[in-house]
Amino acid sequence: MLEARGIAASDGRLVAEVKGRVGKEEGVLVVRHIHVKYLLRAADEDEAAIARAYDLHPMRCPVYRTLHKCIDITTELAIL
Known about the structure:
Blueprint: E1 14-25, E2 28-40, H1 47-60, H2 62-67, E3 72-79
Parallel strand pairs: 2-3
Antiparallel strand pairs: 1-2
């Protein structure tokens, strides 16, 4: 979505740090929460376009769409 808006996201410009929290259900570990922090090297880019892409991303992401109803997923974006 970023590159469609003319914002470079390849070559290591966009990386994600992902953390999860697990719990137990009947003795089995289950993922309860996933937090994704996107780090985007784009200080000179159009911040409004970046914000629009970030806001639209979840419902266009296959992983989010698959998991969001059963696992709490949060995200944040840091523009470097």
